[in-house]
Each structure stands twice: as structure tokens, then as C-alpha cells.
Amino acid sequence: MSEKQKILDELYSVISDRKDNPKEGSYTNYLFTKGVDKILKKVGEESAEIIIAAKNQSKTETVYESADLIYHLMVLMVEMNISLDDIYDELQKRR
């Protein structure tokens, strides 16, 4: 696995750590404090922003918004106790 491929594991680990060990001023902790409704709102907002970026045929903006969506999805996953392995297993079943 390349260094770039490890970033998802690292990001998930940082998000999980923020939930277990809150850090003052952390945006991730803000989301956890506000709860699942706020997290879901952000997932929805980022999804809409990807749609707009892709509709505008902007690769740069679509990449940027995709990264935001992945981050917010991972916050949701940690909140719901869903691991990356759970996602990998589901994707493998579909292969």
C-alpha cells in the first residue's frame, strides 16, 4: 500500500481519536458534540457541493468537495461505530 493509500486509515484514526480524546477547538469535536443531525447536515451539504462542482465540470472543485465529503462520511462512520473494514468488506461483496 502506498503512502497516499494510507491516508484514509490515518484520517479515520485521527477522527476516532478526537472522539475518544476531545481536543478543544477541534472542528471534528464540534461535529461530535453537535451530534448525528449536524454530521448528517454536513454530509448533505458536501454531497450537494459535489453535484454543483461536477455539473460545472470543474475537476478541481469536484476533487476538493469529494475530500470534504469523505471526511464528513468518516465522522459519521466513527459516530456510528462503522469501521473502514466494514466498508471494505461491503465493497468486496459487491465486486
What structural class should be given to the helix and strand makeup? Answer: mainly alpha
The CATH architecture can be given as Orthogonal Bundle
| Helix run count | 5
> What is the succession of H and E elements?
HHHHH
The N- to C-terminal Cα distance equals 20 Å
Radius of gyration: 14 Å
What CATH calls the topology is Helix Hairpins
Specify the CATH class: Mainly Alpha
Number of strands: 0
The figure for the number of domains is 1
The geometry reads as globular
Unreliably modeled segments? none
- Estimated share of beta-strand residues: under 5%
Describe this structure in words.
The chain is an all-alpha fold and 95 residues long. The protein has one domain (7-94): Helix Hairpins (Orthogonal Bundle). The protein is built from five helices and no strands. The relative contact order is 0.13.
Notable traits:
95 residues; 5 helices; globular
Short description:
The protein has 5 helices and no strands. By secondary structure, the chain is mainly alpha-helical.
Explain the layout of strands and helices.
Layout: H1 7-20, H2 27-34, H3 36-55, H4 59-79, H5 84-94
